[in-house]
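Anyone able to model this chain together with CA2?
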Amino acid sequence: MKILILNGPNINMLGIREPEIYGKETYEDLKKLVGDYAASRNVDVNFYQSNHEGDLVDAIQQAYFDKTDGIVFNPAAYTHTSVAILDALKSVNIPTVEVHISDISKRDDFRQKSYIRDYAICTISGKGLLGYNLAIDELLRGGKE
Ligand code: CA2
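re: yes, here you go
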């Protein structure tokens, strides 16, 4: 099974600021944690992070041409704003799990809206970096191994 681990704006800043919300681990730590877990589950993972909405749209479209089986996606702030990203997901129709490191249900009002939630097969929020591994499990349960 081939999974894209896709992260939106500022996720590359993990561990650098706001550790009380997002923890002390860095984006490199995240890649190691998820990469090791994926290997243990015999899953082939690709990581991509961008601070740019259009680049995330391009990555979603590329996942279709690469015959990617599933997407683990933390759209970060674009969760709450981006119809373009929702449309890209709909256009490729690849099973997608929405992940948030923090529990967005307990945060600001503007974080309560998710354009991705209704499209995603499920949303994992507030489980820290472990949420990405739980998302892989969800895709393995729902997708082909
Ligand atoms: O909890 C999450 O994973 C979020 O998707 C993170 C986004 C936020 O806009 C969403 O509402 C919830 C923000 C990512 C910013 O990451 C930072 C990392 C270090 C320092 C500052 C921001």
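The domain at 2-140 is CATH 3.40.50.9100 (Rossmann fold).
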